[in-house]
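Record type: monomer structure entry
Structure origin: computed from sequence
Chain ID: A
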Amino acid sequence: MYQLSFAGLSLSIGTLLEVLAVFRTDNRLLALESSDITLMQSGQPVQVIRHNGSLTVRRIRRSHWKLLYDAFDLTSTPRLIFSSEQIGEAADARGRLDLFETLQGECERRFGFRYAGPEYGHTRQRNGRHEVHVAYALAEGCPIPEPVLDEYRQLPDRFTTDMTWGRVLLDVPELRGAMPPDKARVLASLMSREKGGISSANAALLAMVMRLAPNSPTYEEVDDLLFSHGLLQAHNLPDRYSNPVPLGTPV
């Protein structure tokens, strides 16, 4: 439940989508600055801003994000949410109901992106996975509301296999904004095999050394760089490699 307050009024609103609808349709909000509007959820403030002149919020949690994509899934089975009469009224001349495209358009109008997701980082690529956007925002030092980060702290496995480096940036704030995502990804992978890994104690030193790495380094380049500065240990081969093995008589 959201509590929206402005100009001496207070509204109780069930969902974030309904809040955004009020922002879009209530003319009483047009002349107000975002600082004159208060939005609360369960007693916690939600920041209201203006983006290209329109009121919006910058606090989409992973759980909210999942609800949006659950709605896209429902477009394949419209009879779960609409009656036959409603479907008939909304169908085109051929009797077809393209809810997916309808939702795509509505999603783009409300949020600025379609099913493929918004652009992330400086890649100009799009992604529909919430953790991708969180990881890149952390790497770039962008401000992220604590309630958004708390959901990731509570369930560590939410950073999937190819985004595990995001967990390092979540746990070690000193690394946020200290290096590009390409460097953070390789650094996190290599240091995960070292005793102690990455922590607040060595974050500043690692960030300083990583400035010497190329902008899009290979694992070998970073491995050599860290080893030359004493930040990676040389690992001995297993004992079996130093013991001769009888191979028999060559023929």
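Annotation 1: The radius of gyration is 25 Å.
Annotation 2: The first strand starts at residue 2 and ends at 6.
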